[in-house]
Structure formats: structure tokens, C-alpha cells
Amino acid sequence: MRSAMTAFNSLEEDGRATRVLLHLQHSFEMLLKAALVQDKQAVFDKRTGRSITFEKCVNLGQAKPIALTAEEQGTLRTIDAMRDEEQHWYSVVDEGLLYLYARAGVTLFDDLLSRVFGERLADQMPLRVLPVGTEPPQDFQTLVDREYTNIADLLRPGRRARAEADARVRTLLAMEAQVDADAEVSDADVRRVVRGIQAGKARSAVFPRLSEVASSVEGTGLTVEVRFVKNEGLPVRLVHDDEHEDAAAVRLVPLQKKYHWPAFGMADKLGISRPKAAALRAHLGIDEDPDCIYTFMFGTQKHVRFSDNAFTRMRDALNGGVDMSAIWQAHGNGKRATPRPACKQKGCKAVPAGAS
Questions:
Q1: Over pLDDT 90: what percentage of the chain?
Q2: How far is CA 345 from the centre of its chain?
Q3: The domain 255-331 is classified under which CATH number: 2.60.40, 1.10.150, 1.10.1660, 1.50.10?
Q4: For the whole model, what pTM was predicted?
């Protein structure tokens, strides 16, 4: 974290954004792994023998004691996505957006350090090394609109600035990780966005996901705090391959990445028996929700997998004190020959066998 702050305030421009994002992302990966180790969780993959990925750290960090919120996960994934684009290809990060995420990173690092270890960042480094910007932090939507206008200007006929425009588009696409855990940047995404901008589409049409993000800024000067919060975004509609409607920023998400939880693995992670996990899924209607479940076909074999949405809904239900005894009576696979009673749990989305 000290290295990230030193790089941000450096007089050296070459590679500055790259150094900031590399060190900022690495500082969070080490902090999350330290928290997991203190909680006696494994940070090495038994199959490969290598330490777990940043994405895995963020997923594990949803549980206590780290207890990452959806907004905090989004901030971490965005910093990671921006770092990925900087490290593996070529992107241009607007100074205002770099400052906003650097300050948000400092705020979140301090929050996690206090939440897990009972320490404050101010005890580890002086305020003078924290990121200092030449302009006060602006609202996220204002900065994105400004950057969108800059990209449109670069794409005007005769400018010959397509490479820089693409690099700036990659950064905005990376920022969609703030609200989309599966967001990845591809050349197809960049080309699709560029076509939308060249066609004169509004920013809200090209980047509808970014409309869901807002920034909350508190304090002034060196003590400013930045957090990303949920904004009331624009409606997003899925467009299938056989539809001819031009959708500017549609992403193709690998299904095996989205639906990666086996039923038994999810039950074991939640700390409940596998039959009770099946009953809880029935109670929540997860097995009927296409956003939670997908069946992969490999020849004649069927493999059912679940998404993080399914895991989150089950975890939240358990943490909310759901009555598992009543759910088991309604949905469990007990050895009764008589019809199971109707589930009277609030919010149950399934009708048990034998119920009218």
C-alpha cells in the first residue's frame, strides 16, 4: 500500500498508473489472505499446490470475519480488472477516475484493517503519503460522462487516435466489475462499444451497467473518504444471438465460470448436510431459477452446477435465522410415505409434493 501511494504521488509519469494499480491490487490480495489465514482458512489450492487467486479471495471474503459487502466486492474486482488491463495489454486511465479508485482503495483498506485486525491505516503510514489529487474528488457519474465525451472526440474522423480510444474504452469496461462479478474485457467488447460511440449512442445506452454505480465522498483534503455505493441504474435487457438489435456493451460470459458450484460443494461450504441443502434450495426456489442453476451436457452425461447467486441466497437465508426444521418437514427427503405438509415458511417459492 505504501508503494501504491508513493507511485500515485510520484513526479514520474511513465508507467505511473500501472504501478499504482499493480501495488494497490497486490496490497488487497495480501490483506485478504492474511485475514483468511488468521481465520484458519486454506489459502493454497490442494489440487495445484499454488496459492488461491484474487477472485477466490474476494469470494471467500463474503463470509465473516471479513464480511465484504457487495459494494466492497465491486471495488476490489474493479481495481483487479483495471490492473489486469494495465498489466496484460494497454489501457489509459483518466486521472480523476484513478484518484477516485485510489482514495476508495485507501478507505476500504482502512475499513478491512480495522474490521479484521483492529488496527487503523493511519497507525501504519502518515497522512502525507496518501494520494493527493490536483482536483477535488468528483462524482463517479460525472467522471464517466467526461471520459465518454473524451473517447467520442478521439473517435472523430481524421483524429487517427483509435488506439488511445480503445485503451480508454478498456478502462471503462473494466469498471463494470463494480456491479458485475463476471465482467471481463475482450476485443469483441471493445469493438462493440466503439461502434456504439461512433453511432452517436448515449453513454447510458453503451454502458448501462455503469449507471448503477455512485460514489460517496466524505471529508476534505488528506482526510477524504471515498466509498462506492449502489445507484438506481437503468434497466438492462439480455439480447440473444439470433436477435438483430444492436446492443453496444453486451458481454459473452463463459457459463462454466458463472455456474461453478456443485451441489455437494455448496452444501459443504455452507456447513449443512447435503439433503438439507437440497431442501433449502427447494424452499428458496433455486432449482427453478435460471440465474442460479444450469445443466451442462457432455454427451449423455448431465452435470448440474449453481452460480454464486444461489450460494449467496442460501447463505443469507441461513444467516437470517431461517427455520431449517420446518423447511426439512416440507421439502426434506424423509422416509415418509404420506404427503409432506405445505411449507409455511415466509417467502417459500416451492410447492412440496402432495400439497394443494
A1: 54
A2: 31
A3: 1.10.1660
A4: 0.69
